[in-house]
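Shipment paperwork, digital attachment
Item: protein structure file
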Amino acid sequence: MQLNHKKTPINIKAALTIATSALLGTLPVIANAADDTTTPAKAQQESSWDFESAFLYYSESDRVSAAEAVTSAQKTFENEEVLNLKLTIDSLTGASATGAAAQPNVQTFTRPSGKGSYQTQAGKIPLDDTFKDTRVQLNAQWTQPLAENYTGSAGVHISKEYDYLSLGVNGNLAYDFNNKNSTFSVGLSYFQDTFEPEGGIPLAFASMPSAYDDDDEYGNDEEAEDETVNSVGKTAFNATRRTDSDDKTTADIMFGFTQVINRRMITQFNYSYSKVDGYLNDPFKMLSLVNSEGIAQDYLYENRPDSRVKQSVFAQTKYHFEQNVIDISYRYMWDDWAIDSHTIDSRLRIPLSRNSYIEPHFRFYQQSAADFYQPFLAQSNAIPEFASADYRIGEMSAYTLGVKYGMKLSDGNDLSFRLEYYRQDPKNSGYQAPGALAEVDLYESVEAIIAQVSYSF
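Attachment content:
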């Protein structure tokens, strides 16, 4: 988030409100604290297009890698109406944690499609090395004045992956008062997501079936026998799957308040409420069913509740010193899965010259575990109603440390580079590991490098 865009500066209040409104995908018009006029990024030349593009690369050590290209365009019309368009294309490859526990022996797993298998070495967290996906996402947002001191915004969202479709709409209303030094906003959004995972949707707590060969061409008696075996294997695999697709809906509401304190300082506060209903499982995650010695006897597909309510409060402050600008925010989230999280994010922009700056960045995140999170299932216990070993809903802490360098080119366009280090540390939330599980790392840390280059023109 920059204090200055290309061509004409955007004040702190504009930058802050736009950033916070992004929580709901809305882009409200911002009151300009400097000249006391309302302008929806009227810092841009009227009736012209402005573009921003970025390429990001994310790579976890021995796990997932992602490459993402983003292009956004904004056109401001003479009557202060603004059109924003954004296209995102990303590709993910590598290995993803399945939720199964590490073991002192080699483990064999069936691929999500059922066609073939893969192995995990002794003492290693099981990773599905077939993880691959490409996503194309398009967002469009229209913003315009509705009446004196009132601004409205509406947008649409579509995102498509190989096995996933997301459609959404959003709206925002902003009201300026107190000589446009104060802004109150309310935003709504609604999303409908459809899942059609590779291999079908697993039944809750179904055992992982054996792999089968989907080769249908057979020419001799031996191959015909193989065909019979594979047909039985395919039937057994299908018995663990649902035959339909599934979906989930997400409804969000956010209330925001922005206040200009003085010419150097601005603050913003938000409260958001989110209700999610439908299919909330990860179809590729499972749990190890272990005996009293900690040895896996089976692998069961996870099952999560079919609803979730999340709430959060967010506060952000920007202060402009003589030269430097500091940006600090805090977010607290809690939900009815018993997860609560704390996020502290800070940036300090330091000008190096009239046309360049450096911006150190530090972010800290901490969360508790969901009440149904379990790193494994004990064979001696009854199967619970809900359970998941997905470390993303377990107890963890994480931090990001990085730096951004930006410059204004001779043609007036902006170029920036960002490099960051990310580390995530899952934690034991009170589970006693029996036997062999006590000798392996059940909570392996995840490290990643993030690199990004951005260009505005």
